[in-house]
Amino acid sequence: MKQYSLTGQTAIITGASRGIGKVIAHLFATEGAQTVICSRSTDRIETAAAEINGMVDEGPGNVYPIECDVTDESDVRALVDGTLDELDGIDILVNNAGGSFGEDGRVHTVDTTTWEKSLGVNLTGPYLCSREVIPPMAADGGGSIVHVSTANALTGIGASAYSAAKAGLYALSRLIAVHYGPHDIRSNVISLGTIMTKQRQERMNNPPTETHQELLNEYPLGRFGWPEEVADTVLFLASSHSSFVTGVEFPVDGGLTAGLSQEFHRPVSNVEETPQR
């Protein structure tokens, strides 16, 4: 008999109609979780749930779609209330919904609309979702919250509003870990490097540019990541396999943030030389 690592667990995954969130939902359902997925589009989230349920092998897991704008308090309350009404508690929350918007570049070029929208989706959304699930989690003996951030937020890379908002997840997660650890609620952040979702592959290939190769050169592993690799890490942090892990930032970035630029390391440290015993 296969042992399902999330059997008997109920999970909510935001932003799961496509990309990384959808892959996480598929893995959770495969591992036995009753998984609620949400996005702002009813059509997309229902289609995603049907596709995942059609792919999951016979087992205890299933996927349930709910329309939800994570920046809307009433939507988030309805998401959590609906999950509690239909399923047995909430054991896992994955704050995956996010993204960059508008003309998001250097600070002096970012307008307030772009700034506020980025904060809303990337930081306020995770706050609202966490705020709503923490009481039922505590009442039911604990749980795990995983926030999806970016390597941009650990360094000075990328869009200013997006990076600043995602950096806020680190403080939010640590505060949850400290304040609710006595109730056996764990909270951790994963920081993603470049992940080759279908959407990113389409952007990078239309057309490919020298900039993409320059970015690839910054990765010690010499490649970008895949959504399945992210999902495996989220599963670890959500499951009992990480039961003594809380309040940490977990890079899933192929070594991007491990050191200085690879353009520096290659000539100085001879990293291309094959190690000899």
Quaternary structure annotation: single chain
Number of beta strands: 7
Give the averaged pLDDT, no decimals.
92
Roughly how many Å apart are the termini?
43 Å
Counted up, domains total: 1
Description:
The protein has one domain: NAD(P)-binding Rossmann-like Domain (Rossmann fold). The model has no long low-confidence stretch (mean pLDDT 92). It has a seven-stranded parallel β-sheet, with helices on both faces. The chain is an alpha/beta fold and 277 residues long. Helix 1 links the parallel strand 1 and strand 2.
Task: Write a compact overview of the structure shown.
By secondary structure, the chain is an alpha/beta fold. It is built from 9 helices and 7 strands. The chain has helices spanning 19-30, 42-55, 73-86, 112-139, 160-180, 198-204, 210-216, 227-238, 262-269; strands at 10-14, 34-39, 62-67, 92-95, 143-150, 185-192, 249-252.
Topology:
Layout: E1 10-14, H1 19-30, E2 34-39, H2 42-55, E3 62-67, H3 73-86, E4 92-95, H4 112-139, E5 143-150, H5 160-180, E6 185-192, H6 198-204, H7 210-216, H8 227-238, E7 249-252, H9 262-269
Parallel strand pairs: 1-2, 1-4, 2-3, 4-5, 5-6, 6-7
Helix pairs in contact: 1-2, 1-8, 3-4, 4-5
Kindly list the characteristics that best describe this protein.
alpha/beta, 7-stranded parallel β-sheet, 44% helix, 277 residues, Rossmann fold
